[in-house]
Amino acid sequence: MKFESRYGIGEIVIYDPLKRKDACGTDQLLEVQGVSFSMEGTHYFCRYPTTGVTAVFSEKQLEGDPLFDQEKGCYEGTDA
Q: Could you tell me if 70 and 13 are in contact, meaning their C-beta atoms sit under 8 angstroms apart?
């Protein structure tokens, strides 16, 4: 069985709390620390760089960085 995720470990993603009806705030840049696959979907363990706190987000709560190369698993110009 093959599992694929939209975002890779180490990728910087954007969390937009305004996508939720009951939340307010500004966009947050997060780093993907882990990926979990379940019957409910794919979940991402992401770290807030300012506090170091790790939280879990669903795929639809996040937006990816277009500069991150998913196939190589790193940003262009860096070694994987």
A: no
